[in-house]
Amino acid sequence: xxxxxxxxxxxxxxxxxxxxxxxxxxxxxxxxxxxxxxxxxxxxxxxxxxxxxxxxxxxxxxxxxxxxxxxxxxxxxxxxxxxxxxxxxxxxxxxxxxxxxxxxxxxxxxxxxxxxxxxxxxxxxxxxxxxxxxxxxxxxxxxxxxxxxxxxxxxxxxxxxxxxxxxxxxxxxxxxxxxxxxxxxxxxxxxxxxxxxxxxxxxxxxxxxxxxxxxxxxxxxxxxxxxxxxxxxxxxxxxxxxxxxxxxxxxxxxxxxxxxxxxxxxxxxxxxxxxxxxxxxxxxxxxxxxxxxxxxxxxxxx
Length: 302
Hints:
- By secondary structure, the chain is α+β, with helices and mostly antiparallel strands.
- The chain has three domains: 2-82, Uridine Diphospho-n-acetylenolpyruvylglucosamine Reductase, domain 2, CATH 3.30.43.10; 90-200, 2-Layer Sandwich (Uridine Diphospho-n-acetylenolpyruvylglucosamine Reductase, domain 3); 217-298, Alpha-Beta Complex (Uridine Diphospho-n-acetylenolpyruvylglucosamine Reductase, domain 1).
- It has helices at 2-11, 44-56, 105-114, 130-136, 177-181, 197-214, 234-240, 269-287, and strands at residues 16-22, 34-40, 61-63, 70-72, 77-82, 90-93, 96-100, 117-118, 139-140, 143-144, 149-155, 161-165, 184-191, 193-194, 221-224, 247-248, 251-253, 260-263, 296-298.
- The strands form six sheets. A five-stranded antiparallel beta sheet has the order 6-7-13-11-12. The chain has a four-stranded mixed beta sheet with strand order 1-2-5-3, covered by helices on one side. Strands 15-18-17-16 form a four-stranded antiparallel beta sheet.
- Its EC number is 1.3.1.98.
- Residues 30-195 form the FAD-binding PCMH-type domain.
- Pfam families: FAD_binding_4, MurB_C.
């Protein structure tokens, strides 16, 4: 593997590549082992070159987005890991906003507000990237990305450029075609409507206030850990099971919102996974409800 990593670094000297870089420096949980090779493409062409060359060398490819709704295991990730945070251009024409995959979703909602465009207010406080939001059909407060997406440009696993319409993306609850096929999102176009700028701002402020009041934003976390099971609220199930505050190492079920697991300081991914497993087992035993993870769990065991 090291030989292939070195070969890729030699072939692409123009791209920022880091060998053995700890992913805890980039994940929102502040946990995760090293990437064999971590890449930060500056534009679509560099992303295409990375995929093409990694394929030739038969290196596995993992795309992290902004690593917000994600747990990277303590053993790190094999092969090439791509973080798109340097691809963050956002453009607006009439009622459409096109944003590169590494752009912050919060920045996109801010541009929508500045241009008096409505439809993205629900995403005002979602701490992910555009690519990650497409990947998992991010949503909050009754809104989902699928409601406003017009088209998405991707690179498939063979390095080919493709453009998907909203219909092509097979959106579902916290799911999209991107998860199934493993494409790398380059950019997305959102189709919005003209609105009252003051009302847009008021709604964004209201949702951000509600988020700050209910969610443990003062600690590192991966966001909402579990999907909402049909007919139940995850946080209430965890509270009713007496698990709020349950802790393994420095990974703790938040005292502020039981649907979150926070890092109190030195938590490992292993601590997180042990807490998750304990919650799942307890809820299944007490309430016969199977909790599925919303957070993406990837990488090697330590």
